[in-house]
Amino acid sequence: MTLIQRSIGQAGGWLPFDRFMALALYAPNLGYYSRSDRQFGSRPQTGSDFTTAPEISPLFGQTLAVQVAQALQATGSHEMWEFGAGTGALALQLLQALPELGVKPSRYTIVELSATLRARQQQTLAAYGEQVRWVNELPEAMQGVVLGNEVLDAMPVKLLARVQGVWHERGVAVHDGKLARADMPTDLRPPSTIDGPHDYETEIHPQAEAFIATVAQRLLESEKGGAAFFIDYGFPEAEYYHPQRHMGTLICHQAHQAGGDPLADVGRKDITAHVNFTGLAVAAQEAGLNLLGYTSQARFLMNCGLLSKIELLEQHLKGQNLLLINEHEMGELFKVMGFCTGAPFDAAGFVAGDRSHRL
């Protein structure tokens, strides 16, 4: 809290929300992802705040490996990159499954800013030795298959609010010694017109779109190029900025409970926003990548053979794995988007149910 209050003072009494979110999540030794507490887990009893697909079932990574193997072969590469690898569970699942599919990456690079999470990943992946490496930033050129599972939703967003017909950028100030919401008039606008006169809150994603453009640039700078797959919760632009979504998508997670006040318990809970997949697709294509497909997590995993894997499980294990594809769980809210350099190939995960036309 002291760091954020000091930052607000240095900024003249007001911080835009994206700068506040960056400090709350990533400030060294203080931000949510920098602390030593456990963030990822299946139940509150573990001391965790939320779960992710690789934590729910190893079948997630084993199924994703089908798409990764195809992409490695299609791009002629033997390298993999993962952003924000969490506990290292997905990397472990992929490294175990890929050799069974006839593919063994020569190098698996994890881009991880959190020293605490990096230590957990190194413990999880110790058996793979020098095959796995960690970096803090991207090289000028990179090749291979890039993965980001629940990475984009944790990138800082700008908050916009239309109040009595006037657009404001929402930020954070200090009132009576406490953090408080504060709005400033702005020329920023959502990418879509919001019909109606009603008050409206939403987010825009310049940092996530810049990240996608950077990944595209680095892939295009390499001789072989590659492919990239991003899995996250979100919507296409027309749904994201629907007039009825007037409270936006920003949400916090703590002890497996969802909450709406990012200014409470700062550094002790996750802050996320849903992804505007249309904006990401535009950013990638403008940077030179080709779209491979866009679909729900359920359809993507079923295309890659998840159901046949579930059928082989004992009955008491099937329900847990169905969380990955059930419409009211992760199956519909989570989407998968894929890109590649060069000519698109028929990516396995999008062979049926591709929704690219909705972007």
Summarize the structure.
By secondary structure, this protein is of the alpha/beta class. It has helices at 2-10, 17-26, 53-56, 59-75, 89-97, 115-124, 206-221, 237-240, 277-287, 297-303, 306-311, 315-322, 327-331, and strands spanning 15-16, 79-83, 107-111, 132-135, 144-149, 158-163, 166-175, 178-185, 200-204, 226-235, 251-254, 257-259, 270-272, 275-276, 290-296, 334-340. 32% of the residues lie in helices and 24% in strands.
What percent of residues are in strands?
A: 15-25%
Detail the poorly predicted runs: none
Order of helices and strands: HEHHHEHEHEEEEEEHEHEEEEHEHHHHE
Mean pLDDT: 94
Structural class: alpha/beta
Kindly report how far apart the N and C termini lie. Answer: 39 Å
Helix content: 25-40%
Shape label:
globular
> The biggest beta sheet, please?
8 strands, mixed
How many E-type strands?
16
The count of helical stretches stands at: 13
Whole-number radius of gyration? 20 Å
Short key terms for the protein model shown above:
359 residues; alpha/beta; 8-stranded mixed beta sheet; 5-stranded antiparallel beta sheet; 13 helices; 24% strand
Description of the structure:
There is one protein chain. The chain has 359 residues and is of the alpha/beta class. It is 32% helix and 24% strand. It contains 13 helices and 16 strands. It has helices at 2-10, 17-26, 53-56, 59-75, 89-97, 115-124, 206-221, 237-240, 277-287, 297-303, 306-311, 315-322, 327-331, and strands at residues 15-16, 79-83, 107-111, 132-135, 144-149, 158-163, 166-175, 178-185, 200-204, 226-235, 251-254, 257-259, 270-272, 275-276, 290-296, 334-340. The strands form 3 sheets. Strands 2, 3, 4, 5, 10, 14, 15 and 16 form an 8-stranded mixed beta sheet that branches. Strands 1, 6, 7, 8 and 9 form a 5-stranded antiparallel beta sheet that branches. Helix 4 packs across helix 5. The longest helix has 17 residues, at 59-75. The chain is globular. The two termini are 39 Å apart. The model has no long low-confidence stretch (mean pLDDT 94).
